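Sequence, structure tokens quoted for completeness.
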Amino acid sequence: MNLPNSITLTRICSIPLLIWILSTSRFPSANGTKELLAAALFLAASVTDGIDGYLARKRGQITTMGMLLDPLADKLLIAAAFISLVQFNPALVPPWVAVVIIGREFLVSGLRSIAASEGFAIEASELGKFKMVVQIVAVVAVILEHRWRAWPVYGPYIFPVHWIAMLAIGFMVLVSLISAGDYFIAFWSKIDRRVVKRRRRAFVLSRRRKRDVPAT
């Protein structure tokens, strides 16, 4: 087990702990300990997504297990977070938001699986990477908003946690849908070209067979 894969497994192991923190009543509700722990854990787990990939490329330790575990860990973390937030903060994360986000992850995974079976890959787009950043901001903001609608910064100035969480959720849904469409277009263009090539090849082969058949 190399270091990048160990970091990925750590991210997977943090998922049950995140769910437990968000759902347990063991933490006092007055001081925001639960919210701070959950936000810090989710943020740390999200950061490891970039660390394990960077180390795998730098150390030349890209393995089949890593290629399988890394996207699986990302999707499990996002799915667990939003399913938990439906119960933890339903005012900001209604069930349909979780369905859209998790459904998008299933769609992209399905497209990549079909692409792999056809012999090509769909690379992660810049829009998809940006979507991940927006998701991290949205999840952290929603967790903190459960305890603080605003943070005092200096004097009359406050940090509007509630409004940031609302805007981040709406923007995240929009970016998720757009990036899903972007992945689908990329998939369709590649699969369409392969179908055209197959048809041309089949046509050429049929023409050759006809030429090779002796005349009677």
About this structure: The chain has one domain: 3-212. The chain has six helices and two strands. The radius of gyration is 23 Å. The beta strands are 151-154, 157-159.
